Amino acid sequence: MKIAIVFVGLLAAILFTACQTETSTAENTAAEPTAPPQPSVSATATDLPPATATVVPPAVTSTPKPTSTPQAQPAASAANADVLFVKAKQSADGTWRFDVTVAHPDTGWDNYADGWDVVLPDGSVVKVNPTDRFTRLLVHPHETEQPFTRSQSGIRILEGVTTVTVRAHDLVDGWGGKTVAVDLSQSSGEGFEVQK
């Protein structure tokens, strides 16, 4: 009988402690959620036999885990000078004239599309003068003219090269916008027209 009374007393103390912990946690909603502290109860009663000295811990309520914020996906590229259309026309001397339509949210002299290139399959850039920065340098912003078209003639493309890529560059972010692959053996295709 004594064992049952001591056991009930211990169980009541444990449940009371658990209720107090749960109440104080509910009142403090601004604090970070933590697991309720475990009561430190030791069964040292000398009149209890060893088999009944086990303390049953209180029912632990699950603490809600903080929801994770989805990670933002990195942008594919910050560069946004896009080539929208290319017209390539071959002259009688075998050189080419490229008319390239570019779109870029130019904001003025601090951020604008500043050039475009004709790139061969091996990655080399075709330039009228080897010291030029681009196939076609764009020397000023076009914030009030979007999209805009600029041309470059005198472009020599090696014999046997049938496909080139046209890309645009912007002053702040560099390369990385939309490009157009031009098949010089076709009269037209997606984003281009060829005249011979």
Describe the structure in your own words:
By secondary structure, the protein is an alpha+beta fold. The chain has two domains: 51 residues, no CATH class; 114 residues, Immunoglobulin-like, CATH 2.60.40. Helix content is 13%, strand content 28%. It is built from one helix and ten strands, in the order H-E-E-E-E-E-E-E-E-E-E. The strands form two sheets. Strands 6-2-1-10-9 form a five-stranded mixed β-sheet, with no helix packed on it. Strands 3, 4, 5, 7 and 8 form a five-stranded antiparallel β-sheet that branches. Strand 1 and strand 2 form a beta hairpin. It is globular and about 40 Å long. The N and C termini lie far apart (110 Å). About 30% of the residues have low confidence.
How would you concisely characterize the structure shown here?
With 196 residues, this protein is an alpha+beta fold. Helix content is 13%, strand content 28%. The chain folds into two domains: 2-52, no CATH class; 82-195, Immunoglobulin-like (Sandwich), CATH 2.60.40.
What keywords describe this structure?
5-stranded antiparallel sheet, 2 domains, 5-stranded mixed sheet, 1 helix, 196 residues, globular
CATH architecture of the largest domain: Sandwich
SSE string: HEEEEEEEEEE
Q: What value does the Rg take, in angstroms?
A: 38 Å
Poorly predicted residue ranges: 18-76
- Tell me, rounded to a whole number, the average pLDDT: 74
Classification by helices and strands:
alpha+beta
| Count of the separate structural domains | 2
Major beta-sheet overview: 5 strands, mixed
Shape: globular
| Spatial sequence of strands, sheet with the most strands | 6-2-1-10-9
Helix fraction?
10-25%
CATH first level of the largest domain: Mainly Beta
Proportion of residues in β-strands = 25-35%
Question: How many DSSP helices?
Answer: 1
| N-to-C CA distance | 110 Å
Topology, number of strands:
10
The name of the CATH topology of the largest domain is Immunoglobulin-like
